[in-house]
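Hi! If you just cloned this repository, the fastest way to understand the data is to look at a raw example. We've pasted two of them here, unedited. The first protein comes first, obviously.
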Amino acid sequence: MRLPHIHWPHFHIHFHDRPLAGEPHPERPFHWRLYGCEMVATAVLMVVGLACVILLSAPHSWIGDHLALHPAIQAALCGLCFGLAGTVAAMTPFGKVSGAHLNPSVTLAFMLSKKIVWIDALGYIISQIIGAVLGTALVYGAGYFLSSWKVHALAVHYGATVPYTGVPVWFALGSEILVTGLLIATLYWLAAHPRFKWITPWIGGIFFFVMNPLTAWISGNSANFARSFGPDLFAGNWNGLWIYLLGPFIGSSLAVIAIQADILGKIHLMEARLVNFGHHGRVPHMDDPHFVHAAPEHYEEYKQHLQMISELQKQRTVEDDI
């Protein structure tokens, strides 16, 4: 199944960043253009995601009051819409260039799997936090032009995720660890299987649509420190923010450990830009990149990867027949 092709305006901006895997190039240890694209993509995630959450959950909004009578449906729809906001961000030219991690937990998982070096992981995480702040700032700023929007946004603290009243703090932390671990494991498993790889940019909406009715009442199901930091900054609510830093990072790390222990079977993973969009990030313009623009030194590696995947599939087919 092919993803629908979205036609975006053509930007004549040149990108010549090297692939992120491996040691940084001595003449170019940083990849500022990729960090910038990741920042903008994360801002898109926040604008679309927070707008949906505010409309769906704010008291006295045109749909919030109706959904309040059905909290499980409300939670599921909030998860679906915020997850699909990640898909929208990934499909922008910025997301396609950076690979659209959009989440420090995802970047950490790629770093622990040695698919991105630590200096680039740090650049991505800082970019994600800045992007989350910028995206929330746009949502906040809209209140100066629409008074009703300001009322709705304030009522839900700009879509902030906070531990629910009466829930023990360690229970909320455990929920964030569990949800993030499951999210990373799901992304890894899908990305490692060519038959299902096409769904990886869309899985966020499906995942949180299922998980939110089950666990969102505990901690809000953030699984993303940047997503929690932005709204908390503007709402001035720092209560429990450490949960959304520590929980997702622990969950991401545990998921990688489980995957490396082959608990989910043999999984060979590539970096997000190659998984989702078929390129390493070296693209001539900020339009739809393809693998033909990847750095030449990685052609053979990519061919070997495809050959290994094909052999594994044949082996599994033979085992199933037996």
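Ok, and the second one:
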Amino acid sequence: MWLAACGRGEPPASSAAPAADGGTLVIAAPGDADNLLPPLSVTILGREVTDLVFDHLAEIDDSLHTIGDAGFTPRLARTWTWAPDSMSVAFHLDPRARWHDGQPVTARDVRFSLALYKNPKLGSPFAAALANVDSVSVKDSLTAVAWFHARQPESFFDIAYQLWVLPEHVYAAVPPEKLATSELARRPVGSGRFRFVSWQPGSRLEIEADTANYRGRARLDRVIWAISPDNDASFAQVMSGQADLLENATPDQLKAAAGHAGIRPFPWPTLQYAFMGMNFRRAGQHARPNPFFADLRVRRAISMALDRRAMLRNVFDSLGAIGYGPFPRVLSTADT
């Protein structure tokens, strides 16, 4: 659930009026980024920033369908062509795409990015998602061919969306094992519609629209994350007019904001889900089964004993739904 300060104290404009381009959005961020490297960042803020500064080869459309390639729209790749045996796919890059330093995006960058993700010296937590992608070869400067180990339903999703493309001429200058502590981990160079401006750890992170971007200029001029230590402090920033948006408002915060002029909640379906995991192996002794949870009957009994509806009500109030597996209801394939 988003909580937005409309106009920071000014009355909200008519819903019929079109939104004007430009301006600055200030987001209250409960927690800082770990780094701004797509292969390494695992924090919410880090992922939000890299999502805007860097690009995929293709983007998932509103159907959220990741099987095959029908549910994808062009991003860095303007078109793509499958081999007859579906063991490779050639991505034809948009010739207009440029890095934020002005250099063109090339097939070499795609090849470099995959190799970097899979390099054990980097230690990317996302390398496993690319396990079925064997390699990328360069056919010409604007054609990158991805090769797969096996035909799988989500092969395209893996290479086109799980991989962020980085500029080889920038990131190859630093050994993979040193990237996490390098200046590039704090000052990214991407090809997205926003470019990095500044980062003051624990205080503020700012990006601005790339006015010459190949996909067109972003509607906002700037996005600023006002970094605070926790969600309560971020909520206070929105309520005091210091920030425009809190992305994950709690039920208690929504109740506290109710009736305040200029503060509006925006329900927003997400792909997040909560679950209780049980360790089938003994802690520290992975070769030995857990004496309790290794027994299917115990796991079934615990699952049947839990009042999931009461847990949902106590934690999320009316902002969630009971799930029947790791598939959020927003997915069209949740019931298949």
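That's it. A detail worth noticing about the second one: The CA atoms of residues 69 and 279 lie 36 Å apart.
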